[in-house]
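Journal club prep — side note

Before the paper discussion, L.F. wants everyone to see what a predicted structure for a comparable chain looks like in token form. Sequence:
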Amino acid sequence: MKAFVLDVDGVLTDGRVLVNEAGDQMRTFNIKDGYIMQLAVKRDYPIIIITGGNSTGVVKRLAGLGIKEIHSGIVNKIEKLKEILICYDLTFGDILYMGDDMPDLECMQLAGLAACPADAVEEIKAICHYISPKIGGDGAVRDVIEKVMKIQGKWQIDSTVKSN
């Protein structure tokens, strides 16, 4: 795999949205997912986020990890993915796509490797090459990226990657 494409809600988060009295929507992220994404970026893997959600907090969190390709508020994920693949000179076969629900289905069917968290919907699980034993927001992203990096010989300790 040359690049990782990730959904947010249900993959990087547990899918819950907390809403405060001001109407702000908040999500929680797993620190281990953050560590592996920073490491992958340092190892020159593009990490591409395509989400239907539209949260400034999510964008800030991911940008803080060094992720440059963050696409939020996307209705048609396949069209956005096609645009991105052209920019990176990648094919569908070059990507690992991790999603959890029906908006990810078409992209995942075309990906070289389709992966999902353990709590993904059944239709997604049915088309996946790999189902993480971890649920969304609880290290599923760490699980899949770490496996790829180990297989490709790019897994080694890096003390310059912070755990945030």
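L.F.'s comment for the group: The mean pLDDT is 94. Keep this in mind when we get to the figures.
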